[in-house]
């Protein structure tokens, strides 16, 4: 029904406006008695065989919603009804920011892909915390970044602010230094600044009575040498794991119109699937499975998800595939896992 009726209708309109409209509709529908139960009955798969324990946390199932969809933690309780085992909110920054000028979100229908240059648009970490206090038992990841106006030499302070504000309200943290849409952010992936950033957060973490897992989200555009550096950094800083991968700046092999392909921003969706899986396999094999990996990028079918898990991922996340394939995708992946 989603792909036959709902998606064709929604895809006639501007993607960012559709995103906000969809949020409002899900919020309204979920307030109607029994609708939440209906969503759960349609899309959730409850089976103890799907449970996973990863970096000390127990996940109801290994399929999560990636950061960027519910940036401001406005809909995590309702989205959980669609069968996700966990929801990652953000990317959040210390201060509210509008992000990049519109239009900044583009569908590449021929490629089942999206280009975005949102630029960490969010209402600031404190506003998100107010909503997270209403969590009804959803396992939450907190994806954190820096404000655009903060120079890289002061970036650590922004991450510390977000870490402190979210600490009591999220189950794990994700350090985002891999978005291509904040100027110079990816320079923080270099070994020296990244090690400093992660060590600083780990120092704060270790002073807590109950520590939270810290993960690093990396770009798919890193070279093999840079990926080997990532393995060294994870080992040195003792963070909990890696999310592979963020969006790509590559435009290789796309079939959509040139005007769309030439839009600046990060590309997500089917064209990212193979590279994301390559990165997962490389990290897993070269590290001898030394740390957990959350696989994300181009998952549009149960087969795509299984490939990432077989490559070495412990969990997977959806974003663009959820938009193109609909909530049925979550159920399909969990069903496929049970039939393995």
Question: What does this entry look like structurally?
Answer:
- The chain is an alpha/beta fold and 340 residues long.
- 39% of the residues lie in helices and 16% in strands.
- The protein has 13 helices and 13 strands.
- Strand 5 and strand 6 form a beta hairpin.
- The protein is globular, with a radius of gyration of 19 Å.
- The two termini are 27 Å apart.
- 47% of the residues are buried.
- Pathway: Pyrimidine metabolism; UMP biosynthesis via de novo pathway; orotate from (S)-dihydroorotate (quinone route): step 1/1.
Q: From the structure provided, what is the oligomeric state, counting identical versus distinct chains?
A: single chain
Low-confidence stretches: none
Q: Which topology does CATH recognise?
A: TIM Barrel
Q: How many beta-strand segments?
A: 13
Helical run tally: 13
| Radius of gyration, taken over Cα atoms and rounded to an integer in Å | 19 Å
How would you characterize the largest beta sheet?
8 strands, parallel, barrel
Order of helices and strands: HHHEEEHEEEHEHEHEHEHEHEHEHH
Query: What CATH architecture would you give?
Result: Alpha-Beta Barrel
InterPro entries: Aldolase_TIM, DHO_dehydrogenase, Dihydroorotate_DH_1_2, Dihydroorotate_DH_2, Dihydroorotate_DH_cat, Dihydroorotate_DH_CS
Membrane topology: Peripheral membrane protein
Pathway: Pyrimidine metabolism; UMP biosynthesis via de novo pathway; orotate from (S)-dihydroorotate (quinone route): step 1/1
Main location: membrane
